[in-house]
Fold these 4 entries.
Entry 1:
Amino acid sequence: MSTVETVRGPVETGALGRTYMHEHIFVLGAENVQNYGAGAWWDEEARVADAVAKLRDLAAQGVSTIADPTVWGLGRYIPRVQRIAEQVPELNIVVATGIYSYNDVPFQFHHRGPGTLLDDGTEPMTDDFVRDLTEGIAGTGVKAAFLKCAIDAPGLTPGVERILRAVAGAHRATGAPVTVHTESSIEAGRIVVDLLGREGVDLAKVVIGHAGDSTDLDYLTALADTGAILGMDRFGLDIINPTDARVATIAALCERGYADRMVLSHDASCYMDWFGPDPELMRSAAPNWHYRHIDQDVIPALRAAGVTGAQIDQMLVENPRRYFTSA
Ligand SMILES: [Zn+2]
């Protein structure tokens, strides 16, 4: 019997059910909230209640698990997520460890770790990630179940490379699966499978996040042929790639036999402070970017494009279960 850690404790991987593999609850800058949100646009109780309502609605659609890749750089704060998880017992929330940066490592690692002033031969990031995975996060008792890092338009900067290597080290130590935010316009997934492959990461345990921003079947099949899983995980971000193009790409990949290499999600959140205090402003720029879009619009469109119910189950149930099943 294989289990995966969730906010409320271990769950059998066979019981995860329909799983959205990349949904945030909150994306926040802690310093933004603490210095500019408090007393102004940030109301902790209102935001928690709003998240509970949105996640209950998500669970009511038959989604029983979300993987939330919110880590350092995106405002991970587990006590708040715990409060929400307690009030939505019908939804499993799987949380992550790692660092989200497109450029440099956080200042807290500038002078500690490989090649720095205080180099003691270890990578302190890896130690932190492993502790989150094996002992729990910040005394909450909640264990992370996967690793998260990022590579965006700046490419493999020294900071990004160090974070990817630190994530690889934590994967080797624990076997925990990995999700990487990638920028498809620079084909960053290729850099990821190359680097993580050389670092000894089992690519079958790697989601190339945001691969679905691309419609280039050569790029996508090259990634999938390494064993990696394609994150078709930004449904609703039509400004990057519209739903009909995302759907057509998935249908083409299913036809070529890649249903076992894709997972589906929105990369949505209950609240995100990146677009200013008023989330409705983003609503007008991306009206479909919410937790209901896949169930309401995407699955019917996939069916209409010839994707079978079994292939949809493969992407929503079987592939997430396999990803979170330890070897
Ligand atoms: Zn994300």
Entry 2:
Amino acid sequence: MMSSICGSFAQPGRRTLWATILVVCLLTAPGINWWSASEAGASPQLSVIYVPTPERLVHRMLEMAEVREDDYVIDLGSGDGRIVVAAVRDFNARAAHGIDLDPQRVAEGRENARRAGVEDRATFEEGDLFEMDFSEATVLTMYLLQTLNLRLRPVILETMRPGTRVVSHAFNMGDWEPDQHEVVDGRNAYLWIVPAQVQGRWQLSTADGREVTLSLTQSYQNISGHAVVEGASMDLNDVNLRGDEIRFVIGSDNYVGRVEGDTMVPVQTSGAAQGWNARRN
Ligand SMILES: C[S@@+](CC[C@H](N)C(=O)[O-])C[C@H]1O[C@@H](n2cnc3c(N)ncnc32)[C@H](O)[C@@H]1O
């Protein structure tokens, strides 16, 4: 059909009509993307509209995350770049990066970084946050929507290093309870620490040669479990997981360990057992 219409173009006296038809033929030809939405100047399909976080809350969010010199902060949906700029300008983060789908916002972020004199460490990228790899961040910030937070939740838990701090303005993460919640000028701010994955059975060898079997169950940062020591089963007491640091008490022995994949090693802390190690079965 399309080729028969296009093939009749050479008839004289009807040039304007046929030129129009030719353009339509080209634009609608399958497999040819002559005019993409961005080239046409159309607005990107944003998952959430732009609303800036007030500066006081920006500051508090970065304080809650305890941003320091060795941090790499990524703001998902970075707007005019205020969180990214504040992270390096006010908290001296090693670097900060903003991702936004709207090119106008990305340009504003770059301009604000330039004005603050931090454009070498505060960078911006145009793109869809759901297609980006942000797993290198040590601090992740966002002001999105609850539905978007829930889409991000498994990505955060599965790809980000234990101990990564996640701060959200306004919206929570469903049944992943925050480690900290504050209300600033009537607005909610939430902090989560990405927990290590510790669920399973572990074989713990003590410094004096005893073998302990640990069984841990986990829901986000909440863990519980029991230990079998020389045939006797006992609950773990004072169990706590914060990032990659795990604490528990077996009988009168206090354990503080660092989780590294399928192993745990003791942390040097006064009053805590030393010389032990544990491996997940
Ligand atoms: C509520 S604003 C937050 C801006 C900034 N983070 C702040 O707190 O001031 C949300 C931002 O997300 C951006 N955005 C929306 N959908 C996005 C997507 N799929 N990928 C990346 N950015 C997106 C919008 O352009 C907007 O700038």
Entry 3:
Amino acid sequence: MLPLIDLKKQYQRIESRIKEEVIRVLDSGQYVMGPKVQALEERLAQYVGAKHCISCASGTDALFMSLIAKGVGKGDLIITTPFTFFATAEVIALTGAVPVFVDVEKDTFNISIESLKLAIRAIKENDSSIYPLPDKALRENAKLKGIIAVDLFGLPAEYDAINEIAELEGLFVIEDAAQSFGASYRDKKAGSLAEIACTSFFPAKPLGAYGDGGAIFCDDDELAETLRSVRVHGQGSNKYENVRLGVTGRLDAIQAAVLAVKLDIFDDEFENRQRVANYYSNGLKESGFIVPVIPGGCKSAWAQYTIIASNNDVRKQSVDRLNKAKIGNSVYYPIALHDQKAFSYLGYKSLDFPVSIFLSERVFSVPMHPYLEVAEMEQVIEVLQEGN
Ligand SMILES: Cc1ncc(COP(=O)(O)O)c(C=O)c1O
């Protein structure tokens, strides 16, 4: 079996260091937050080039805490894309705000700047004939507050344009960098591309813990203080003073120890992900599949290597062949968010976002991790080319 993501190979490389560091935490008696977590936050902030890092319990918490810190709630509209992991839009709805979907680009899977402009105009003019909007009753007296842009599959979105539009319109931008830790955009690292950036340390992510974890990055001192308060039930100057509502969003010291060991080898792993992606893209050039497009000035973290089949039948046949050859694969994401039952109350129609629908019917991902060998990549390419 060739797994989609092989965490065991990585573990074999770092096993002794991990055991040493985890035992150190066990011996220390400090299990939640503490010096290990603080030291990791400092390293992570430096790595991405942000002033502050606020570690937390998951990528979902990172996004949710960021919205809470920005005061998002009922009566607010927040723009995001429908072709992403559920959590990106879920957190918007959990605050009481309304998600407003904007379609993605077919070649990058990231937010379409033209659609973003249209959606903002449609909201301002309260006219869904300009761009599809959520149900009219949900928009009544609601105010557009911000944008969550997603760096899908590890590729940063177009932040120059997004930040410029946001500034013009008085909106905040959150970078959902859950999949893009390590990626870069015009010499800046993912995690530093918007006012707030959120990442995930779920084990399968480019930088993954051995449990759940996440982090928020920002430059603003006051925002960082608010986020630190939100992380612990809206704590004030001491433990039993609560100045706002918050969550239990802390990172534990064992995950921090694991992440510190993995950060030591991260740059080497990052380069190996580029190696794997380049090998696949060369090998699949003539295959009839559309391979990922990386715009100039960007580097993807290659959380996934995702290709586009010419239609849904071809995807089905390809997935069957991969399964038969015992090659790990997955479809991210088979149901666009506006088509999910949980978001049916928004009142969108399936074809409101044609590119997201197009992609949800055709994409699939093949094994991607830094330890893939040439023979393994050759096997993937061969199986994909059979019968295509
Ligand atoms: C784009 C995106 N946003 C948010 C999340 C949520 O992260 P977590 O699973 O750590 O809560 C994920 C994780 O899969 C993700 O891929």
Entry 4:
Amino acid sequence: MTAALAVYLSACSTMPDDEEAEPMVSVSNDSRPLSSFALPPDQQDCYDRTSEPYTAVVDSHFHPRPFGGSAIPAPELFNFFDNTTVRFVNYFGIGQVLDLQSGCTYYLDCPGVPASPSIKNDFVNGMEVMAYPHENLHITLSMTFMDLAHPENITSLIELYDKEYPGMFSWSGELNVMKQALLGNLHEPATKESIDGWAPFMAVLQERGIPVTLHSDLGNDANPTEFLPLMEYVLASYPDNKIVWAHMGLSKELANMNPYEHVTIMQRLLGDYPNLMLDISWDVLFNAYHEWGPVFINFFNSHPTRILPGTDFVAAGTKSFDQYAKELDVTSRALKAMDDNAFRHIALGENYFRLMGLDYYAPDICPTTAAVSAGQ
Ligand SMILES: [Zn+2]
């Protein structure tokens, strides 16, 4: 066993289902400011993994508003990020809004209440990003309104965004292709026919270089690959789009899949589709698969340029900083075990910057740490 895997496995013993696990997120005084990432790597201080945090600087999967009810106020939310290592965040709606008359705030608490794709939260997010200064945070606004089962009006709604928020939305998603957890709230999965109907809006996204994050369950415990053909159909239909597969297809409904089979499928698709990226957000990976840590760490180290980190935090007004800090910590524990090259690309933002064409750079890893890694 390598040292890195030993670290990962020891971290697994205090994984999220262990109530004693405390967040180990550093505060802003120790963390790098946004401005430092604007410098070329040779002008930044190298990153010392022995003394600096293992938590990511990018949260590429974050929901600033909940399915219903109040959200965490923007200035408070910006303080959350300021008090962690996160300097880059994707604002994912959330796109699916519970029926406003229901009074519901979380879809699983309200079976039968429709949760429908909507422009509501995107528009609020667009206003808040402009209304509040946040000099230590780079926010990427995302279009989350797309109904993938009914794509007919998507391009006309993109025109509405262009008119109301010109040039401000540079990501799309998280959009649901097939999300079993949401079926009780009348979520209508995409079909091969509706996927064919995405062509006009996928052409717009491709032309603008806008990535799209898709939630598409791989399957469930009864049939781990039940919905794989749907995602493969998407990838085969739109190979030139920047597609990010949320949670690598994992979900609470799929807890017992053979990890080698899972990784084999991911490797094949990464090979077949060079524009595909994998989102390793959400603590489901670490809840369901923590005993399989080495399988995944080796996979991440083998594909360092194809992975994006994130929390999948939903910023409901009832939540506190500690909850965000804990989710950031839990979802970053795999980063801690990665080799230096994968850590720089994934945790320190290099993949995110290149995917988005941003003028930011991940720092180099300090040589002393690199020497330790090389000696594994
Ligand atoms: Zn999400």
